[in-house]
């Protein structure tokens, strides 16, 4: 039986089970004198029966589908006398067998392959039939068991809710396990990288030139993996971005929260937040095509040397991108400062600006710091703008007019194009990713901690 | 006496009373003018024909009242009667509420409180305020008290500032409790201590008038008793207007009591007279607990 048909059949069985449970409960209620005599509502009895019927069968089906391919392959390949030695060769052979079994014949198949293909077909059909039979038997059997076990005293609701709780926990775990999985894979690949390049060289080396020789006789590509220029580049671009975003964002937040009339506020706040909705790639070409040439020309007119791709251009545009983060978060915290504090300050004869500077901002400061830290971690992780506007040259420089490169840009360039996945060049991307992950993790952790502490103060 | 229609009046918001049409007419016929002694000879604050509007709604109707030098005037009345609104006119704290409009003559020492040429900053330095809920700044105890003198440039040297802080805390009866932890946050004090800290903060700028808006409503009886003692001591140097929900408190701390009803000033008299021999039927109904 085909798998989709089986699914449809199971679904039908589940519906039947629900209906049976539901109607049994109704009948029991009618004969025993009202719904209140039942331990749960009829729909819970329906769900209870349906879960008994469907859940184990679907689980079995899922596990079966996950493993049957591997088992069939193992069985088929074991039956072949002279297998190729390499993994690639075995893959090729198995693909050939599968194709033959599916009827896509190409060329002349050896008798050995033909026998294997027949075996494959038998195994697969057997597996499908067994799978269908087992899951249907399981569904019908357990469904019948649940129907037979029915009694008005059965606490169906509690059982159903227990299962639902399990479903909720599974969903919640999915995100956590994904994070852990990503972290682990990055970690292990990084460890592989550190086997070929010492971690001290990676962390403290001043030269970044990740070109590996493809052939032994290739010239001038020994590969250097000192990541310090990348770190300083990232720091410089982020610092320029924060230099733009923090004052502008904070002041616009102060204006919106303290000075703007209600009408201006309801209009201006969403408009500022639109900035956050602009795709970063749009910011990127804005930076590369408009801002960077403008900065170069400006610098030239002042008699300074400037590269056409500069840290300043990328940082400025990134700062503009981050403004809404800072302003929106700060605006929320400033609004959360109790009016009574403002009244207290005004009642002592403070001017509006004294109230804001000396009372409101200090009271909101922890929250503002939290917001700024979140913005920093966003700036460090930002990729598109720097790819387009900051350049690729790993210069170790403090001059914002020169082109620099960042961790994220290097990850992109390391993984773009044809690469072996076991050369240090590609593995370096994982090491860089790990650094990035750790630094944003620490920043987020501090930021959330600070924000939480602030919340406790006023709740 | 027809008090039936008045019971519902306690429901209105304290800052934005919206008296029902029928009741407003009803009171208008009853409150033609204020009964008792609204005026005095040596007035510190002089208010004449004050009307306050929140947008369309009128919160204060034609109130005239004097507050004398070194006098404590208590303002009582059911919730939403406009007593807090009236108090907040005296140092223009109503300016912070959008859509609030004040008409009439208000004067502090014969200088107008409202007007195009009046700067609210020095006005509020002269007319301090203590709020219903203690609202110390999230700073140290010392910084809380030193805040006012610093922004007004009252003290130039550290030693002067220290002296002002100590004096203010002493007068607020808090010095002995906090002298060893002046650098600890003011928000860490108990409710009663916080309120006394707010009073110390208010008197640190040496105001002439102190407005108190239900200063004890968030405090327990012991803390309340301390504040009441304090008010009595402060009377020697300051003029005090206090809004309170507790009639006992009004009786204990004030020399004159003003009874507000639906935005009208019904009766002002010596406190003893108000509580023993009220002149107006509405006052009598309120203090005998028939409504409010």
From TrEMBL, chain A:
Q: Name one Pfam family in it.
A: BPD_transp_1
* Bilayer-crossing regions: 49-67, 132-151, 163-186, 230-259, 271-295, 310-329, 359-380, 427-451
| PROSITE patterns documented for this protein | ABC_TM1
Which CDD domains does the UniProt entry name for this protein?
Answer: TM_PBP2
Q: Where in the cell is it found?
A: Cell inner membrane; Cell membrane
Q: Which GO terms describe its biological process?
A: phosphate ion transport
Query: GO cellular component terms?
Result: plasma membrane
Q: How does it sit in the membrane?
A: Multi-pass membrane protein
The alphabetical list of record keywords is: Cell inner membrane, Cell membrane, Membrane, Phosphate transport, Transmembrane, Transmembrane helix, Transport
Its primary localisation, in coarse terms, equals: membrane
Q: Domain named ABC transmembrane type-1: which ranges?
A: 231-447
Q: Which InterPro entries match?
A: MetI-like, MetI-like_sf, Phosphate_PstC, PstC_N
Asked if the Swiss-Prot or TrEMBL record annotates the protein with the keyword Transmembrane helix, the reply is yes
Which GO molecular function terms does the record list? phosphate transmembrane transporter activity
Highest taxon above the source species: Bacteria
Q: What does this protein do?
A: Part of the binding-protein-dependent transport system for phosphate; probably responsible for the translocation of the substrate across the membrane.
Record-stated family? Belongs to the binding-protein-dependent transport system permease family. CysTW subfamily.
What's the name of the protein?
A: Phosphate transport system permease protein
From TrEMBL, chain B:
Q: Which GO terms describe its biological process?
A: phosphate ion transmembrane transport
Q: Which CDD domains match?
A: ABC_PstB_phosphate_transporter (cd03260)
Residue ranges of every copy of the ABC transporter domain listed in the record: 45-287
Keywords linked to the UniProt accession: ATP-binding, Nucleotide-binding, Phosphate transport, Transport
Gene Ontology terms: cellular component: membrane
GO MF term list: ATP binding; ATP hydrolysis activity; phosphate transmembrane transporter activity
Enumerate the PROSITE patterns for this protein: ABC_TRANSPORTER_1, ABC_TRANSPORTER_2
Please identify the protein, giving its name as recorded.
Phosphate transport system ATP-binding protein
Question: What organism does the UniProt record list as the source?
Answer: Microbulbifer donghaiensis
